[in-house]
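Dear support,

We are seeing what looks like truncated structure output for some complexes. This example has two components. We would appreciate it if you could run it in full and send us the complete token output so we can diff it against ours.
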Amino acid sequence: MKLIKHYFESIDGIEIYPIISMFVFISIFTFALYWVFKSSKKHMDEMSRMPLDNDEL
Amino acid sequence: METQTFFYDNKIVKYFINATLLWAIVGLVAGLFVALQMSFPALNFGLDFTSFGRTRPVHTNAIIFAFVGNGIFTAVYYSLQRLCKARMYSDLLSKLHFWGWQLIIVLAAVTLLAGYTTGKEYAELEWPIDILIALIWVIFGWNMIATILKRRVQHIYVSIWFYLATFITVAVLHIVNSLELPVSFMKSYPVFAGVQDALVQWWYGHNAVAFFLTTPYLGLMYYFLPKAANRPVYSYRLSIVHFWALIFIYIWSGPHHLLYTALPGWAQSLGVVFSVMLIAPSWGGMANGLLTLRGAWDSVRKDPVLKFMVVAVTAYGMSTFEGPMLSLKNVNAFTHYSDWNIAHVHIGGLGWNGFLTFGMLYWLIPKLYNIKLYSVKMANVHFWLGTLGILFYAVPLYASAVLQTLMLNEFTADGFLKYPVFFETFSNLSPMYHARIIGGILYFVGAVLMVYNLIKTAKIGSFVAEEKTSAASLQSTHEHVVKEDWHRVLERKPVRMALLALVLILIGSVFEIIPTSLIKSNIPTISSVKPYSPLELHGRDIYIKNGCSNCHSQMVRPLRAETERYGEYSKAGEFVYDHPFLWGSRRTGPDLARGGVVGSSSYKASVWHFEHMKNPQKMNPASIMPPYPWLLEKDIDLEGTAAIITGMRKLGVPYPENYEATANNDLKIQAQAIVDELKKSNITIDGNKEIIALIAYMHKLGADITTK
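Here is the complete output from our reference environment:
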């Protein structure tokens, strides 16, 4: 623990990291939502058919 | 367009199927055995390697890592090849992965029964095995990612995203939670202590549920459910939102295992908020699974594969509703440490993981052997036995949880505990424990029928080891791509996708772990709390070795019934020297956090401990604790003392320089005092026996701060 604490303490301004990470979290999720809703139905249908494409055996 | 002919490797899939079936039976037998031990303590046989504290981790590890683990690999090795239209990258890596994983399982079973354990739930294995796990896991990931890179399709189906997130996150979890300092071969101490260790452990523990029992199985569901129903997934859009939301949110919710403990309040609240949020993606996934069958419910009536899958997805919905509810502090105060959690995990384990695996196997084996299932009727019987088994298992345990908690929380009109003796609650629980065994037997018999049915199917069919297929090469299909948005590009770049997933799961982890390790106010130190003496350290190791924390917590929550029963509530600062923390997660026996506070109800004299370890029922007739007669015979490992002290000092415990050279002198003085005390009760025993160290440890617990 001592070791890990030492490394953490030597990073300047580490307190801001959690805030940045929260921001990254929200923005990527928003992007994912945006993409999902604007993507074409055709592409979605193609993607969802992928497991059924293989007519093996 | 150039068409290439190649072969899918079905042999490795068959290997993993066989292992899944074998470990299912072994894990279920182990489960039945521990359930029987709870009802009939004589089945502990008075032997160290058959006592509950060691057999219980064998059951949990066998189910999680052996049965479900091999189930995951079966699904990955089958579906990945088809979804990528490519053979696995390397047959050698596949084989190394398979045999390496089976070796780990066998080593786990042997070492856990022999008492080599870190004491951290679902991460019990000692450091040499931890290293082996990391190596084999890397081989699995390497083989998987290399296969994705050489695929013959542009886009990566959502199942593979789930597999990738599983690989990345389990690697991170395993490495961080296994940061430990070896002090000898097969013995190590975690670098974290007390509250931090608890936080890291449950960050790991909860995400083991998320990324070993859930995400790979969602990948499995998104592939095999459409396959079995022969229709695409209900909403591919929903599957994407489901994926990103799930991996984001899951990683934050570990602290819900530590509500009302000495963990800082803000971390507890963080865990609660994210746990409640988890309902949304989890139910999105469940709805997506069930709605895939829209318009096909008539086939669910006939097809056992779909029946198993429908119950599995329903069980997923049940346990992912129950989980967030159990994370609410007011509910958790009632259910934590009780049988409720045992029932909850079995809805997930038997229902979600078990039934989804069974559904997959009933679909897959006839495919691989090019034949119809030997007996659909038998599969239907299995379905009903399994479903009833789950109900007979879970319902009695819910009842037992409610009953016991109500009794433990009941006060008389004068304000005293109505049932001050913990074991008074037990006489009411035994019928539930017996009923639970019936549930287990039903489920087990169903699984045996399945194994028989599948072996018969394999016997009459002909196995296709090398399945010939053909597909256009990726280069020739690439040319048509004109303009794409970022997510579509990402879908084609597995490494970038995996890295993004890595960043996302690290976010929550960093948020939780950094502040508790940094900010002093999170763990207020208590000046009267002193490091363990050498004898107490040995006692602690003996406590860990025998799995005592499987049944005993060391954490008094600030709730009236608990402080009345056990004494002053536990403070974060009391655990700063605890490598590892031993708070426990289930109270089959009473809490021991104040076991050393003279005058408290938890305190017992040396002679009581001595007699109790020899024969618990002599001291508490209602007790279901197994006897520990070997503690009176085995010697303390005095030669190991120096290494333990040195190791602890390296981890930050303030032992004076060179103390390791004289530690055994202090140990002997402390042991002699206990021996002399026992002598007054006409008990003669050597000071170097394990029981002496354990008594010393018991008398240290919670004694450093002044309490009533």
